[in-house]
Amino acid sequence: MRLENKVVLITASTRGIGLACVKRCANEGAIVYMGARNVERAKEIAKELNSNGAKVKVVYNDATVKESYKTMVEEVVKAEGRIDVLVNNFGTSNPKVDLDIKSTDYEEFIRTIDLNLASVFLTTQAVVPHMAANGGGSIINISSIGGLRPDVSQIAYGTSKASINYLTKLIATQCARDNIRCNAVLPGMTATDAVNENLTEGFKEFFLKHTPIKRMGTPEEIAGTVAYFASDDSAYTTGQIVDVSGGFGMPTPVYGDMINLSMKR
């Protein structure tokens, strides 16, 4: 119950990592607000969780309607008087058009960056004055290992996530005086519906060849790190960019080939 009675707002929270964060924070005692475009779907989820003793509520947020970031925050503050934890979970990419520098359309490049950065910048900008007035808080940005390791594709997504990593450090630096912490969690390949729908089995196999822990992560494992940053256990930790990727990209670049060779001997 590390998060007992803390007010937690989580964006893009009806599936995948966002939903896992909702469940984990609720299980640790938080009052959790699901920021969601599909309000009816979110209400169904909240009803089911609340029937088991959770305290989950729903607030409207649509990443394509930028005004909804501010109204989302204001609605939660009006209802609860504060927001203790913000989890900026929204992120988007279309692998079919987000390709390399030669092939990606500029408008698509800017659109992806704009959506992903706005989700962090605007929500954080809206919540910081309320956190400061309440004595502090914790902001957690869900980034990606793709923001650390340059890829052969998804140039817009990687650029946006690298920017979020830097923005995390800026927020941590600028808001520390108000006792507001900001950290980023960088998932590697995680077993979500989005991954299963957009990535081929061949790509997943290739990716995992370079991951020392030879499997995809689970949304629940990402949520565990989020819960740590949401809790007072991390009260002296800020500006950190934490890789939760099973070690992807950590060893020598020829790791995958070396492991395959050693297994054949």
From TrEMBL:
**Mind telling me which Gene3D superfamilies this protein's record contains?**
NAD(P)-binding Rossmann-like Domain (3.40.50.720)
Any GO BP annotation: bile acid metabolic process
Which positions make up the signal peptide? none
Protein keywords: Lipid metabolism, Oxidoreductase, Steroid metabolism
Can you name one GO molecular function term for this protein? oxidoreductase activity
Task: Spell out the family assignment given in the record's similarity comment.
Answer: Belongs to the short-chain dehydrogenases/reductases (SDR) family.
Full protein name: NAD(P)-dependent dehydrogenase, short-chain alcohol dehydrogenase family
Instruction: Supply the source organism for this entry.
Output: Anaerosporobacter mobilis DSM 15930
